[in-house]
User: Which sequence fits this backbone?
């Protein structure tokens, strides 16, 4: 399982930030060619990100590149360069329909073939940033096997809804739709950015809500947001102990050849096991999440 | 009393020093007893009174940093008097001292001794402005040289935010109306004590006695009152804020982790944080660890910031030894906190003085412009070879502290920080124990004890060579800087031996 608690935005035209992007421990690094890059800088950013991905080592982070949308005419040019740099994931902005994903996937597949890259090895994620996209979230989430997750982009969404960002009420429906659609498709759900970087309290309050809702993580726009978010997602010692005990009981039952495991006299259901495994993975204890 | 004693009959009277027999002439009539005043009407009068002549050495302190008016005011008056061929021995110089260039061109100043230099003056020196190389000394080295008369100061011009008519001077005033405030006058103390003639220049004459004091009247010959000593904004800002730069915070966090597990983080430790975002921010992460573990520091040393003061006021640091106050919070604390004491350069870092406070440090966290694979550190010249820094207490504290930690980003822009050879050696690698960057930590191989402790705590270590390779992989290897043969400055180690030279930069290609 790959953790996606934090997806750090890095403007694709900022060499200083690009060269340091790997040092902060974000689960995913998202190089942006879209909104943070002005129209006159698009090609420079594209080449810069290409060079960075083919020169620097960002492991163990997952590398994501946000391209411009295909209708702008820039998206395909972005793909031509970036797919060849072998990022883990291409992030599609402003996804309105499943067709948007399918169209993008076609281009990626073509470029993979041309470049001799194994077809299907480039992952995708779709950012949903409008009312239409939110309504189509379920279909979008299931539109391609390449999708590793869908994300909410709140700024455009609230504009579309004729409201503004406030306490989160305005995002309740979109968040609900997106997390549910993602989980129904078996992929990750990522929440939007929190832009008031110096307000750690507000950031944590929002992060607490989305964690409770079931999101896998959140986009971050400053490295300072990474540690607090990872701490928030870190399970408590008590939860870890409980999960360990559950997995212990499962391994016992498996060793005995019994299909039924119990702990403290209670039978352990399958969802309980799944949750325990996820929790141990979140805690960085993958090896303890084994059933054998 | 006359006639009461036959002095010749006192046993062994020839072995006792005394001033004859008392007569009423020893008593000044009460009506004639008055406190003298050392106040002269102008800087010009003080220069004349001091007897300053061609070829002498004058000194200044740098407690007013980049807000200082004193150096330029005094030099203008000296130039007007036609005095030439002077040595300026400042504890440091800043960008605001660019007017010295004219005085050098006109032969008023022919030699400079300082800890640091920045801006136009530094640029001009690096381009060969002066015949005699500028001498850069550490704070400890300078104090030592003055005390030992290797650097003889004829006249010291010492700015002080408060002074009484006798010359008792301090870096703050207890009046609410005092304009300037610089906190500690630590570096000026040695100049006052050992110069032939010390002149206090103040913007605030206060009633006698101006206690507590930094410079005692016994060392002061003249006092001059001026309108302004400097620009308060340049002299000091409010509280130094912790950096928000995520990279510096990360380096600071790594440094705090190193300290925590080094064996030098125990109840009663002594520490110093150098200037620079990451070095200062290390205090913040240390504080968390101190609170978590219930550990307190016995004292903090050096340039003092508001953060150290906050820890002192929270009971986490027992005592503060302050040779230079970096911000208003520190200056206020010096004024108000009983165990916040100002100390002089010898007390702080004197090389000859075995009891120098740096020798009691458990650890120091220092910044660097460049570090080489032998752990030598440069804090004096930039990546273009031009002077843009200050030695400060870098080599003093690195040598004295049981563990010196140098913090720096692996690269700055397109410039690698870890290199094969530093431009200018300021602090020798044998005194640099740990290098902490954003992309890895390297311990000097001559400290296997620290390596062992950090490895036992699962702190990931690399070696300095790997850091250099990693830096070069990211930003490439810059072309070597081109220098001419001519030496424009000397870098002196804390014993005042020459550890390196700075050469004139070669810009011939650019001029073509």
Assistant:
């Amino acid at each position: 399982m790959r953790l996606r608690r934090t997806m750090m935005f890095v403007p694709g035209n900022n060499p200083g930030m690009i060269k340091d992007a790997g040092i902060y421990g974000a689960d995913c690094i998202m190089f942006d060619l879209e909104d943070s890059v002005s129209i006159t800088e698009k090609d420079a950013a594209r080449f810069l990100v290409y060079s960075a991905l083919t020169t620097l080592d960002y492991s163990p982070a997952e590398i994501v590149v946000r391209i411009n949308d295909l209708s702008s005419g820039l998206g395909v040019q972005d793909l031509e360069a970036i797919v060849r740099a072998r990022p883990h994931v291409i992030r599609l902005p402003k996804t309105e329909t499943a067709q948007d994903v399918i169209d993008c996937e076609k281009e990626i597949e073509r470029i993979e073939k041309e470049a001799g890259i194994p077809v299907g090895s480039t992952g995708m994620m779709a950012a949903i940033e409008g009312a239409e996209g939110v309504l189509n979230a379920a279909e979008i989430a299931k539109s391609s096997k390449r999708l590793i997750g869908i994300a909410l982009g709140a700024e455009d969404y609230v504009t579309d809804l004729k409201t503004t960002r406030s306490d989160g009420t305005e995002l309740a429906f979109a968040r609900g739709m997106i997390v549910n659609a993602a989980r129904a498709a078996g992929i990750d759900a990522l929440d939007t950015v929190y832009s008031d970087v110096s307000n750690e309290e507000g950031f944590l309050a929002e992060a607490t809500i989305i964690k409770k809702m079931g999101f896998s993580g959140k986009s971050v726009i400053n490295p300072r947001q990474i540690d607090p978010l990872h701490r928030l997602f870190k399970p408590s010692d008590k939860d870890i102990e409980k999960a360990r005990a559950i997995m212990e009981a499962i391994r016992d039952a498996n060793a005995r050849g019994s299909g039924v495991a119990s702990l403290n006299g209670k039978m352990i259901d399958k969802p309980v096991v799944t949750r325990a495994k996820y929790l141990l993975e979140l805690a960085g204890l993958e090896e303890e999440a084994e059933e054998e | 009393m006359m006639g009461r004693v036959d002095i010749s009959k006192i046993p062994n009277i020839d072995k006792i020093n005394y001033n004859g027999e008392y007569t009423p002439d020893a008593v000044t009539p009460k009506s004639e007893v008055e406190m003298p005043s050392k106040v002269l009407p102008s800087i010009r009068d003080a220069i004349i009174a001091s007897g300053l002549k061609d070829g002498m050495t004058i000194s200044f302190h740098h407690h007013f940093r980049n807000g200082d008016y004193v150096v330029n005011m005094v030099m203008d008056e000296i130039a007007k008097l036609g005095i030439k061929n002077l040595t300026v021995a400042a504890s440091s110089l800043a960008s605001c001292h660019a007017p010295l260039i004219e005085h050098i061109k006109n032969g008023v100043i022919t030699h400079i001794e300082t800890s640091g230099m920045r801006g136009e003056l530094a640029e001009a020196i690096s381009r060969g402005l002066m015949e005699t190389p500028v001498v850069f000394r550490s704070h400890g080295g300078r104090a030592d040289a003055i005390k030992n008369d290797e650097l003889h100061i004829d006249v010291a011009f010492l700015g002080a935010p408060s002074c009484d008519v006798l010359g008792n001077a301090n870096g703050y005033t207890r009046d609410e109306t005092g304009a300037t405030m610089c906190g500690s006058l630590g570096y000026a103390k040695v100049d006052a004590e050992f110069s032939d003639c010390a002149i206090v220049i103040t913007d605030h004459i206060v009633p006698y006695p101006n206690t507590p004091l930094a410079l005692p009247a016994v060392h002061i010959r003249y006092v001059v009152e001026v309108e302004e000593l400097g620009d308060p904004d340049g002299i000091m800002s409010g509280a130094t804020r912790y950096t928000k730069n995520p990279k510096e915070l990360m380096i600071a966090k790594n440094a705090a982790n190193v300290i925590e597990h080094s064996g030098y983080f125990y109840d009663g430790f002594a520490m110093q944080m150098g200037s620079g975002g990451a070095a200062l921010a290390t205090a913040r992460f240390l504080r968390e660890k101190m609170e978590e573990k219930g550990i307190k520091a016995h004292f903090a040393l050096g340039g003092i910031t508001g953060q150290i003061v906050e820890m002192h006021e929270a009971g986490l640091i027992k005592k503060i030894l302050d040779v230079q106050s970096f911000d208003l919070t520190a200056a206020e604390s010096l004024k108000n906190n009983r165990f916040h004491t100002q100390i002089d350069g010898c007390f702080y870092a004197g090389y000859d003085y075995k009891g120098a406070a740096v020798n009691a440090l458990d650890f120091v966290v220092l910044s660097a412009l460049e570090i080489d694979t032998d752990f030598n550190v440069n804090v004096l010249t930039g990546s273009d070879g031009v002077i843009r820094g200050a030695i400060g207490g870098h080599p003093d504290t690195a040598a004295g502290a049981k563990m010196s930690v140098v913090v720096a980003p692996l690269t700055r822009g397109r410039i690698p920080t870890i290199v094969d050879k530093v431009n200018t050696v300021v602090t020798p690698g044998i005194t640099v124990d740990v290098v902490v960057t954003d992309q890895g930590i390297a311990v000097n191989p001559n400290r296997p004890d620290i390596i062992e402790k950090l490895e036992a705590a699962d702190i990931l270590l690399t070696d300095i060579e790997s850091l250099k390779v990693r830096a070069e992989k990211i930003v490439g290897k810059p072309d070597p800087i081109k220098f001419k043969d001519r030496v424009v400055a000397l870098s002196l180690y804390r014993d005042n031996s020459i550890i390196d030279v700075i050469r004139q930069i070669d810009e011939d290609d650019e001029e073509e």
Notes: The radius of gyration of chain B is 25 Å. The longest helix of chain B spans residues 277-293. Chain B has two domains: 39-235, 246-481. The domain at 246-481 of chain B is CATH 3.40.1080.10 (Glutaconate Coenzyme A-transferase).
